[in-house]
Amino acid sequence: MSKTVGILGGMGPLATVDLFAKIVENTPAERDQDHLRIIIDNNPQIPPRVEAIMQDGESPLPAMAASARLLAAAGADFIVMPCNTAHFWLTELEAFVDIPFYGMVDNAAAYIAANHRSLAGRVLLLATAATVRLGLYQQAFASEGLALRLPEENEQAILDNAVRRVKAGELHANPYLADINAMLARQAAAGTAAVLAGCTEIPLLFPYIDAPLEKFDATLLLARMVVARARGKE
């Protein structure tokens, strides 16, 4: 019998929808009943994670803990969060419930280490400034013996602005798409071979990014891991 998945969502809502869709799309199924039971708490009122880190804003931990307890009480067997920056509080969150959390940061690093080690040092992280400052992906990659490229300061500003517009619902009309494409073209010329979407809003822009780089989607990798764990295949 498959395990019930809990999604601690709302950070942001489009990213939560994206994870849900990718779980469904990556589940082997011939009928409705073959799919996983998924409980989603989409709470967009969780305080902003970037502001909490970059501007000493309100901590999102109490609201995230309440969501985790709700998911556990509703019958989830494990919890995942479609927000990379929120993984800063992952260890603290685990203390609030008796079911496991499975993280997307370590999962993405482990996948690239196992399947694309030849790209070491040539993968560019596309994430929020807060995620970069915290070193979440740098630490995860280092634990796998891999180096990771980071955006320049001006490139990081472009990414942060693009993420804000995704949260406002702007995808194909995102005003920073041209800047991202130009940035990635420069990166490719400088030896970058791939990008890793380390912010859950970034994969939503992937269909509109035409740079000649391999694209790794941490949300998609998380979805595949969720399916494997829920079906007892991992």
Please summarize what this structure is.
The chain is mainly alpha-helical and 234 residues long. The chain is built from 10 helices and 6 strands; from the N terminus they run βαβααβααβααααββα. It has helices at 13-25, 49-54, 61-74, 90-94, 104-115, 129-134, 136-143, 153-167, 177-189, 218-230; strands at 5-9, 38-42, 78-80, 123-126, 194-197, 214-217.
Strand order within the widest beta sheet: 2-1-3
Q: Architecture of the largest domain, CATH level 2?
A: 3-Layer(aba) Sandwich
Question: What is the name of the CATH topology of the largest domain?
Answer: Rossmann fold
- Tally of alpha and pi helices: 10
Q: Name the beta content range.
A: 5-15%
Low-confidence stretches are none
How would you characterize the overall build of this protein?
By secondary structure, the protein is mainly alpha-helical. It folds into two domains: 5-103 and 221-230, Rossmann fold (3-Layer(aba) Sandwich), CATH 3.40.50.1860; 105-218, 3-Layer(aba) Sandwich (Rossmann fold), CATH 3.40.50.1860. 45% of the residues lie in helices and 11% in strands. The protein has helices spanning 13-25, 49-54, 61-74, 90-94, 104-115, 129-134, 136-143, 153-167, 177-189, 218-230; strands at 5-9, 38-42, 78-80, 123-126, 194-197, 214-217. It has a three-stranded parallel β-sheet, sandwiched between helices. It has a three-stranded parallel β-sheet with strand order 4-5-6. Helix 1 links the parallel strand 1 and strand 2 (38-42). The chain is globular and about 50 Å long. The relative contact order is 0.17.
